[in-house]
């Protein structure tokens, strides 16, 4: 279990919380509050004062992305539809690379 830090400042119905993640604020009456957490998430909370029991709901939280394994491409999509053009080589059909061919200069 780790240590946590929180300092709260109050002024009427407003409350500011300073934590290691930043500054959050809330506004509300006795037992009912609306606010923004230090990480930027909006929330509403309801508590039973003096009992330590409370309920909190965060709004606009982005759902965790679902990890999926990409499917393998079908064999028909990987086959070329026409023969590949020849690169390099000479018109005579030699199979040696262009830098090893002895072509006469024009």
Structure in words:
With 106 residues, the protein is mainly beta. It has a domain of 54 residues. 4% of the residues lie in helices and 37% in strands. The protein has 1 helix and 6 strands. The protein has a 6-stranded antiparallel beta sheet with strand order 1-2-3-4-5-6, with no helix packed on it. Strand 4 and strand 5 form a beta hairpin. The radius of gyration is 34 Å and the shape is elongated. The termini are far apart.
From the spread of the alpha carbons, the general shape counts as elongated
H/E series: EEEEEEH
Rg (C-alpha, Å): 34 Å
User: What fraction of residues sit in β-strands?
Assistant: 35-45%
Largest sheet: 6 strands, antiparallel
Stretches with pLDDT under 50, minimum 5 residues:
none
Helix count equals 1
Strand line-up across the major sheet: 1-2-3-4-5-6
SS class = mainly beta
Number of strands: 6
Kindly report the average pLDDT value.
79
Secondary structure elements and their pairing?
Blueprint: E1 6-11, E2 14-19, E3 22-29, E4 32-36, E5 42-48, E6 53-59, H1 75-78
Antiparallel strand pairs: 1-2, 2-3, 3-4, 4-5, 5-6
Task: Describe this structure in a few short sentences.
This protein is mainly beta. It has one helix and six strands. The chain has one helix at residues 75-78; strands at residues 6-11, 14-19, 22-29, 32-36, 42-48, 53-59.
